Amino acid sequence: MFPIRDHNPSGRTPFVTYALIAINIAVFLGTLDQDQSPRALMSFYANYALVPAFLSEGYGYSGLITSMFLHGGWLHIAGNMLFLYIFGDNLEDKMGHAGFTVFYLAAGLGAGLIHWLTDPFSAIPTVGASGAIAGVMGGYLLLFPKARVDILIILIVFFRVLPVPAWLMLALWFAMQLIGGWGTSSDESGVAYWAHVGGFVVGLALTVPIWLRLGGPRFWTRTHGQPPHPEKAYALDSSRVPRVQGRQRHTQVPRIRRK
């Protein structure tokens, strides 16, 4: 289950969201050649990924920021950029371009610090924008809890697009991160679940002042948790998606953790 679009149009062009997506894609494409050499890849991650053990030893702090623009594969960056595209424009609309930029970086920084606190001696490099994007999702939940989000349901051979309120989709996602964080160690899963949880909570907290400025509970009463603009309509609100067979290619690469 994952979102493919929302029905919450923004009132202005989300230049920062588009720029972040472009930067992440450009960095990913520009670093693809690192995969050709495991030694070069590990050296690259040591310099630019978030390595909790380095922070515990007093260096590697720049990785808290640079790791937000690195990704560990095509599916990793595709999933992260899809979530940013769906949820980022509406927060940028409310916060403004500069405010959203600061918010995004602060949420990513907070997610990285919480990941470090939960696993301070791990030497596994951590990369990905999802800590910051989790912050965007936390802010979205507070401001637009009843906005419709279309999710793709996959049950073996059954594919279905289903519209659900944002609070339901985001609450389920957050619960899955908590279960993943408590149920497995990040070294075993390869996923920085606590970075996701931390980013979501940080983003929610950073959005509270904006929510209060808009009226707090009165804002919810006035908008009923709905988008401030008329819902965006799509030609097909729900659809069946055909199953596509593909081949997987396995390549031996150094171990990293994705967030």
TrEMBL record:
Q: Indicate the family of this protein.
A: Belongs to the peptidase S54 family.
Give the stretches traversing the membrane.
15-32, 44-62, 68-87, 99-117, 123-144, 151-179, 191-212
Q: Name one GO molecular function term.
A: serine-type endopeptidase activity
Keyword Aminoacyl-tRNA synthetase attributed: no
Any idea where this protein resides? Membrane
Membrane-topology annotation of the record: Multi-pass membrane protein
Where it mainly occurs, coarsely classed, is membrane
Q: Which domain of life is it from?
A: Bacteria
Q: Report the Pfam families cross-referenced here.
A: Rhomboid
Q: Tell me where in this chain the Peptidase S54 rhomboid domain is found.
A: 63-210
UniProt-recorded name of the protein: Rhomboid protease GluP
